[in-house]
Every structure is written in structure tokens, then in C-alpha cells.
Amino acid sequence: MYRSAVYDEPLLNELVSSKKEKIKPLGILPDSLKRNEKIDIPDIDETQVVRHFHHLSQMNYGIDSGIYPLGSCTMKYNPKICGEIASWDGFAGTNPYQDVSTIQGNLQVMFELERMLCEITGMDYFSLQPAAGAQGEFLGMLLTRAYHEFNKDFERNEIILPDTSHGTNPASAAMAGYKLVEIPSTKEGTVDLDVLEKTLSEKTACFMLTNPNTLGIFESEILEISKLVHDTGALLYYDGANMNAIMGKAKPGDMGFDIVHLNLHKTFATPHGGGGPGSGPVGVKMKLEKFLPVPRVCKNKKDYFFDYKAPESIGKIKGHYGNFSVLLKAYVYILMMGRDGLRESSEIAVLNSNYMKKKLLDSGRYELPYKELRKHEFVLSCEKLKQEKNVRALDVAKRLLDYGFHPPTIYFPLIVKEALMIEPTESESKEDLDRYVDALIKIADEKPEIVKNAPNNTPVNRVDDVGATKKPILTWNMI
Ligand SMILES: Cc1ncc(COP(=O)(O)O)c(C=O)c1O
């Protein structure tokens, strides 16, 4: 815990004990700790200070500043009421070490949120503990292991993933000690059933998939995929980062998935740019319930309580009970939106994405490899621009900064050359979508020198990343 040196007498005594100096009462610094030289800061008035910090705050770009169509990241608007409620003393002032009788409201929020997420995904139980999607995946892999070991199925040491999968999927599986087996997608950009069937074996522990996949394409053969996977005794894992496309329309539980993680910091409003706190709850089907982390949030006739009694549980995945403020914002968001609201937001997200995709394709400046039918995001290729003008996806992204826009995700998924992955979300107006499309079209028509040197109007211009790699300036060398 933070202790103020000025007001904390024992701490002061500790600091100067080597000098055998007696500390004076509160608020008075001993001479040995006082600065003798003048501090080198400008002598300016309050207005200038306020303007300086206000200006600095304006140099940030967030979802409140403008469109942020970072594909795969669902950077959508977080209604202010969600943050407002999370900041209420009754919530923000609580502490995980408090007696449960004093935090019944918090437990109620968690208990009800679990039920809501079950309803949205079609799963039977949820754990709210993981602090990010990747941690949810890792938990999913631990659950997979626990499940197979419980069934004395010790030979299953492989996880299958499509070549479109997000980097955290193989990373989480590898962290859990699994061998990775990547399978190529069809020319349509979806799972190749023949290849999957040949790859599945008595060694397969799980197949990890997101639906719609990272190209924004819905895996319409998901029931066949599920059958193939289950027939070999393996589990099917759902990466829920793309849930924004199907909320209220389809449930991963109905598609046959056994384990699901959601990214509350994407689909359920909390924007997560800059690495802010996240939440990656994991939902499971009944057969995996007993392996979920402890404690579970339970309710008897009148009270909520934490239940630690779960002998088969994998244990804890994170300290305490998850990132409570993100859970709370998701809870408020879901209550506010309701069943119809969530469905409508997915519909608008998909509509916005297809509107942009159509305009950009019609412009003839960019290409769209793989199937045209997309959900909430689409992945364009700048390969033609690269061939014709030596302008790459990176250059286009940097130039967007000059137009005052946040760039999309680039170079992912890996199977698209010079990828621009755009996810506009339901939060954007038609005017903003049009402005973004116009900027992308203009950039494609600009002289290559302008685009390749961008950004020109930002406080920091093009970073020499090759130079930085070859000659890194390390901070500990500068001290
Ligand atoms: C498809 C997909 N899966 C998993 C993740 C991992 O989520 P997190 O960043 O919360 O760890 C992401 C993150 O962008 C993602 O896009």
C-alpha cells in the first residue's frame, strides 16, 4: 500500500535511521532529506499549467475521439453510465478481503452476470476469473487437460488450430504444454473438413476455433466440424473475441462448442486500447463444470457466498475473483441493452462492416481475398497497391493518422497478404464510415512518397523500426 513519506513517521524514521537523526512530528521533513538546489521547472501560472496538461490529454486518441476500427479488437463505445456506476463508492470502494456479508451486492452482480453469459452463449456454467481473452484461453486449455486426465485419456497432447487463428490461441495452448498442429484453410477462407478429419486422432485434445473466424467469415459447417471433433473424443474450444457478430443471433453452445471464452472488454463495451484492464470469462458445458476455478459464486436461500469446495477444480487462474469493474460494466451494459438490444447491436455491427466493405471494393483500390460474405469485420489486401506503387499496408495505416483516424489492424490474419483488417462496430455513424472510406480511397490515389513518409502531422513521425531493432537505445544505457 502507498505510504506518504511526509505524513508517515515510522517510514521517515526508517529512511533516516542510518543517520541516527530523530524525526520531528508529522508534516516536517528532516533537513537531511531536503533539497538544497533550486528545482529546474519553469515558473508559470496556473492557466498555462492547465493548458499544458489539457493539450497533452488531447494528444491521446481513444474511442471517444473518433472511429477506432481495429479489426479483431471490437473497439466500441462504452456508454458513460457503465463507467459512472463502476466508479460508485459502493462498488469502487470495496475490497476483495472484505467479509462476504458486506459485499453481497458485488456477489449478486457476479452471480447474475454468469447466468446472463450462459444465456448469451448457450453454455451451462461460467467462471469470471480470467483477466483477458488470452488468460481465458489458457484456462480453457487447463480445463481440457483436466477433463482428459479425469477420463484417464492421457495420450491427448495435441491442439489443432486453423491457420487463421489469433496468435494468442497457439500461445495459450503451448503454455499449457500442448503440441500445436496448424491446418490450412480452404480457398474460401474456412475450415477444410477433409484436412481436419485427417488431422484429428486419438492424440487430439482440442480444436480451437473462432466463429466467425478472423477473416470475418462464418463457419457454416460448424455442426459437421463439431461432430468430427467429438467423434474422436476431442473437445471444441470457442474463441469468443468475435462474439460481437452473432450476439442474440447464434450461440456457440448450440454449435457444439464445449468451452468458450468471451472478451468482456470487447463485446460488452469496455474499450481496451492501451492495454487497460480486461476480462475473459470462460463458459463450459456441464461435463466440464467440476474443473472450473475456485471460488465459485453461489447462492443459498438468502445469501450469496464463495464456494471453495471443488476437489476436481484446476485451482485459481487469477488472484481474487476477476477484474470486478470490467465485470460490472458488462453487467450494466447487458441490462441496459436487453436481449433485443444485443441482437440489434450485432446486426448493426455486421451491417456497418458490409457497408464499408462494399464501398471499398467498389472503389477498385483494394482487394478482398477469400469469400465475400463477411460478418462484423473484413480483411482487405493492399497487395495490388504494393505491386503497382510499392505502397504497403503499413504505409496506408500510417497515412490514416494524418487524416485524424486510428488505423485498422494490419498484417493479420497471416494468410492475407498486406492485410488491412477493419472492424467498424455498431458504434459508428454512417458519416464516420463514409469519412473513413473516403480517406482510404484518397490514400490509395496519393503519390507514394507522401504515403510512405506518413505520418506527417502527428507529434511523432514515422518510427524507424528497423533502425530501432538494429541499434536499440536502451534506457538503462542512458542513465
Ligand atoms: C480473435 C482473438 N482471440 C483472442 C484474443 C486475445 O484477447 P486478449 O487481448 O484479451 O488477451 C484476441 C485479441 O485481440 C483476438 O482478437
Task: Give structural notes.
This protein is about 40% helix and about 10% strand. It has about 475 residues and is α/β, with parallel strands linked by helices. It has three domains: about 1-35, no CATH class; about 80-335, 3-Layer(aba) Sandwich (Aspartate Aminotransferase, domain 2), CATH 3.40.640; about 345-465, Aspartate Aminotransferase, domain 1 (Alpha-Beta Complex), CATH 3.90.1150. α12 crosses α15 (about 430-445). The longest helix has about 40 residues, at about 325-360. The chain is globular. The two termini are about 30 Å apart. It binds pyridoxal-5'-phosphate. Pyridoxal-5'-phosphate binds near residues 73, 134, 166, 214 and 239. Pyridoxal-5'-phosphate (PLP) binds near residues 168 and 214.
The CATH architecture of the largest domain: 3-Layer(aba) Sandwich
What is the overall pLDDT average?
93
Cα-based radius of gyration, to the nearest Å? 26 Å
Number of beta-strand segments: 12
Distance between the termini: 28 Å
* Percent in strands: 5-15%
Short description:
The chain is an alpha/beta fold and 479 residues long.
What is the element layout, followed by pairings?
Layout: H1 9-16, H2 46-58, H3 80-86, H4 89-92, H5 104-121, E1 125-127, H6 133-150, E2 158-162, H7 168-175, E3 179-183, H8 193-199, E4 204-209, H9 222-231, E5 235-240, H10 252-255, E6 259-262, H11 264-267, E7 282-284, E8 296-299, E9 304-307, H12 324-362, E10 378-381, H13 383-389, H14 393-402, E11 409-410, E12 419-422, H15 430-445, H16 448-453, H17 465-470, H18 475-478
Helix pairs in contact: 3-12, 5-12, 6-7, 12-15
The structure holds pyridoxal-5'-phosphate.
Residues 72-73, 132-134, 166, 168, 210, 214, 239, 241, 263, 278, 280 line the site of pyridoxal-5'-phosphate.
